[in-house]
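During data preparation, a discrete fold description was generated, as reproduced here:
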Amino acid sequence: MSDDPKPPTTPSEEAGRIGLALARAEGAAYGLALKHMTGMVAEFGEEQRHGDYSVALALEKAEGLYMWSGDGLEWREPTTENLHVEVAVRDAADGRFLPALDIDVSIADASGREVAQLRVPFLWHPTLYHYGQNVAVPVLRDATVTVRFPPPTFPRHDEVNGRRFLEPAEVRFGPVDLSFLEEK
């Protein structure tokens, strides 16, 4: 198809070989931090490729967050929430974080009944940009977590490499064991 984008690693007027190498190095560094989160910090972590995107999910017990209020940043501990949902979306070609996405997550039980639906906003973290939110869910042993987002609407540089991220994504993770949420 003539409208297909060229590989995003093609040198162009906007992206020379050095710039593309730097982008891949940035993606590799981000990937190391992401593997640390999904493989060592989270109770559940997995990453899947979906077209131009690489979508990672990490789940752990709910945690406190600074939230903006009328008086500035305010620390808030979870009240009824028991699960912290973290999503990272990367450029599948170079591994860099994709900002400005509208990410929705749904969690369903083994029968497919939805038990939670949430929007996960951008969440600043000292080591890894990601999207995240706390939510209250029942303890499930075989949940399905679905991550959905429309294509990003941000402008793109580069006539050669910029025609990408055109499709929405829907990525399913499961079965996911949430028994780590049980009180001990």
